[in-house]
Amino acid sequence: MLPLFLDLRPRKVVVFGGGEVGLRKAKYFAEEAEVVVVSRTFVAGFDGAGVEMVKEEADTNLDRWISWGDFIVAATDDRELNERIVNSAMRQNRYCNSADGISNFLIPSLVQRENYSVAVSTLGRSPAMSKFLRIKLESILTDEYSRMITLQEELRILAKGRIADQRSRERYLWEVLEDQGLWELVRAGDMRAARELAEGRMVRFIGDDP
């Protein structure tokens, strides 16, 4: 499997199962997609989750719901039913994810910060390890990295107007990333001084040969 970041705002997702697993996956997709959850019962938390709840047995209108959705999630507590959902989804050439592991797409553990996201997956081998790695990364990826992304974005725009050669721009931006003194300013939150220092380093790249 190949990792991708997709814009799901125009997409439709059907989650079969109103338990804790279904809630977690429904909330994940509801950040962007239109989400319908089909289940006979629902745990607390679905209200206000930004999803449509359809109270019926998962297999009552199975094929119709699958044909409506772009992504299908089988999250019931019935392994055989999850398998039927996945098989039906695959017959209709839909992307499907199952709580029992029979899937053609996976939902990663996600670390979200102001300017970036990091997705972690063990490709279904160990969900616990995915969570463990996410927690580890959350402790490592502090605010300084979001600040540096903001600075790099500003410098990239500035460099396009001052440094003609693309490879020279790339070398300049990488040199900024390797500057430990500049990182100290970013960690301290002194972004004005960090930008002034970074802009000063740009001078020797202007007119640089490719």
Radius of gyration: 23 Å
CATH level 1 name of the largest domain: Alpha Beta
Note the main sheet: 5 strands, parallel
CATH architect. name of the largest domain: 3-Layer(aba) Sandwich
Low-pLDDT runs: none
Domains (count): 3
Tell me the helix content: 40-55%
CATH fold-type name of the largest domain: Rossmann fold
Query: Given the helix and strand composition, which structural class is it?
Result: alpha/beta
Q: Approximately what portion of the residues adopt beta-strand conformation?
A: 5-15%
Name the CATH homologous superfamily of the largest domain: NAD(P)-binding Rossmann-like Domain
Average pLDDT rating: 94
Strand adjacency order, main sheet: 3-2-1-4-5
Separate helix tally: 8
Please state the overall shape, judged from the principal axes of the Cα atoms: elongated
Distance between the termini: 37 Å
Tell me the series of helices and strands, N- to C-terminal.
Answer: EHEEHEHEEEHHHHH
Q: How many extended strands? A: 7
